[in-house]
Sequence to fold (421 residues):
Amino acid sequence: MNAPGPGLWAVLLVATPLLLALAAHVIGHRMQAILSWIAPLAMIVLVVGLIQSLSNQGATVYQIGGWEAPLGIAWRIDGLAAAMLAMTAVIVGASCVYAPGYFAGSLTKSNVRKIDVFWPLTYLLWAALNALLLSADVFNIYVTLELMTLASVGLIVLAGSADSLAAAIRYLLLGLLASLLYLLGVALLYANYGVLDIAILGSQLEGNGLTWVAATLMLVGLMIKTALFPMHFWLPPAHAGAPAPVSALLSALVVKASFYLTLRLWFGVFPEIAQPLAAQFLGLLGTCAILWGAVQALRAERLKVLVAY
Amino acid sequence: MTPLTFYLLCGVGLFGMGLFAFLTVAHLLRKVLALNVLGAGVFMVLIAVAHPDRSSLQPASPDPIPHALVLTGIVVAVSATALALALTCQYYAVTGRTDLPEDSPGSERPGP
Fold:
């Protein structure tokens, strides 16, 4: 608590989009369009502030409410988190700026309601992403993962067609399954070690059978979320149905966030048991996913360009 | 068999049942139900973990942290279920179907 530097910026980074979500729900369309310019600017200022105080003080752990790690909830702010936060701010900011123009072409009665829903959901997603990137606690990660899933399901369904509904339902069900697998892993870890903090877990870990089961459950859960290669099947329909700014958000961030967690868990919690072979296997899958994702993205972009012309 | 093992086994059993139903049943409402059973299994494991036998620090009282986790988990599960049900209703209203179209054959039912 005595070092409010990066911690303060981090709290603001999560609190601001939440307030924006509330505000966007209340104010009218004209104000929403103005807000969509202010919001990215504010967030980028916050991220720059975070990075600056980070470079002064180095990586820190921020205890929310001043409770110590085994009982309270901690946020870890380090270089990786800051880089991901900056990327999030740039991408969400870009789609915020892009979205009014995208929606402006189709201002019918029903679309206006959709746009009303779009802004709060986007800001909520932003808050969830930032909180997730800062979490240093396996259960907190579960909660933010769920927040992220719910917000992005809402965004997918915005298009309102039967296809996008089916895609959203599939995404939601698989997302829930993935989070519950992850949660069971968390439960097993807690049963074994009695702590939830990533750093403490990492220092206490031993490679016994229960830990392996927990690690496998958590990684399978996250792999479904990340849509890593063998489990990528649900992703294309979900993206195809979504409006353009939404699919930018989903493909660029939501999926990456789960991958970031996989990295963080693999190296933060399970370094003792992560053998080089296993790590390489994960890397191979990741490469396949990136290649596949690139191909998919190209195709989607073509389609959208075609439709636009 | 201690009560702890019993409850743990029950939790894992519920989890398995839920997972099996989720992967095999096509009806959306039953998929949502299966997910809830699965979640109940996870919560049961967490509650069993809080058993006083496990925490040597406070021998008399159960460990409160897993209980807090379960409460949070229940809140998350309720809101997620509500969203899933609303989506299912809307889907039924739009298409008149209660199952998802199998547009990705072969990959629809991956092993856990």
User: Anything to note?
Assistant: The CA atoms of residues 207 and 285 of chain A lie 23 Å apart.
